[in-house]
């Protein structure tokens, strides 16, 4: 498995230059390392911020599981979506509000076919709210199918 978390991960993360705002590091509550976040007050409603994970070593015709922690804290904070590079149009995962401010786990299966997925994009869309944040942390890529809960 490949650890792509932000504090000590080995992965290549890039801010998208064509979006409206950047994701920024935020300190974890317990003080160990940081996660990436977009505060609710950044930008204007419907603005987008994209953080891209560049994947260079995925083998074609294998399957992978992307596991990550995410949090949508605050009322009307916006949306978090995940896109795979070879499926440009529709997100493979989307969440638009949290029941509470807790961190949750997202899982996405990536099936490699003729085309290899060479990047994964986390996209934050600004909502109406002015408080809270959208956060992503502990991004890990493992080979094989996602484990059942």
TrEMBL record:
* Signal peptide start and end residues: none
Q: Which GO terms describe its cellular component?
A: membrane
Domain MAM: where? 2-148
Matching InterPro entries: ConA-like_dom_sf, MAM_dom, MAM_domain-containing
Q: Which PROSITE patterns match?
A: MAM_2
Protein name (database record): Epidermal growth factor-like protein 6
